[in-house]
## 1
Amino acid sequence: QVQLVESGGGLVQAGGSLRLSCAASGRTFSRNAMGWFRQAPGKEREFVAAISWSGGSTYYTDSVKGRFTISRDNAKNTVYLQMNSLKPEDTAVYYCAADRRTFYGGSTYYGRELYDYWGQGTQVTVSS
């Protein structure tokens, strides 16, 4: 059974940091890009960041550029999201997801329809 399990969420004050992890099991995702999405109450799930299958390219939504860093460790089948300088508007449930495409070398990672495995989510709450 393929699973993506997020961890590392929690409550933090504005300006603080959190590191999210997403551990995959059941199959390797070393050939797939990985992404992070988030969903705030009453809002659509939105793209946050993605990393190519090789780890050589990363992509971010504008609101997190310079504050968040996505990385991966293919040996551990794990992807990370380091979140610094957190703001109250970053409050959401954060989901990791695996791109359905293998060895994809382009730059299109933003659509939810591109991902076919999702974790259960981890809550991030940033207080002001």
## 2
Amino acid sequence: VQLVESGGGLVQAGGSLRLSCAASGIIFSIDTMGWYRQAPGKQRELVAAQTSGGSTNYADSVKGRFTISRDNAKNTMYLQMNSLIPEDTAVYYCKAASRGVNYWGKGTLVTVSS
């Protein structure tokens, strides 16, 4: 499974961005896909995840602001981010879990200015 993120950039606080994660390879075997982020000097943390059955899980810090979704026809996962705050600044990574193996994208940088 190969994952490529896009959609990051610089946005003012209160703005929105939509991240995309395009998957290729043995995609039919993907169980869970998710978004993680890593801010400077901090550990990587879960932002949102979605199982193949559609169940979702969000970090408390993004609940009500971020929405994860998948377009299976396009083999793409999205993260709609609204009401962005400076604390959301980080490199955002896409992850796919398949048969006990985790695959990661290279990340896309999101910078939120105050």
## 3
Amino acid sequence: QVQLVESGGGLVQTGDSLRLSCVASGLPFDRSGMGWFRQTPGKERQFVGWMNWSGGATAYAASLKGRFTISRDNAKNTVYLQMNSLKPEDTAVYYCAADIRTPTWSLVQKQKVSDYDYWGQGTQVTVSS
């Protein structure tokens, strides 16, 4: 049974930082690309960032690049999202997702919801002004 469990969300103030974690189980984490998305009510899920299986390749939404950083620890089956200089518009539910289909030799960046096979339940991040 595959599980992705996010944690680390909460209520913060503008300019603060947060680090989200996503622990995976039941899948070949060390061969899976991992992504982060976010969603606000009434809107489509938005790509935040992606990291390939080894951590050697990353991609970010253009508007977030420089403030958000993805990392992973394959020994702990965990992917992280470091979020700095948070703004009220970063308020959303944040989801991690796993792509187990893409072969490890591929460096194609995965930025679409349909690129991913499994999803976590999400963690709420609220940034107050």
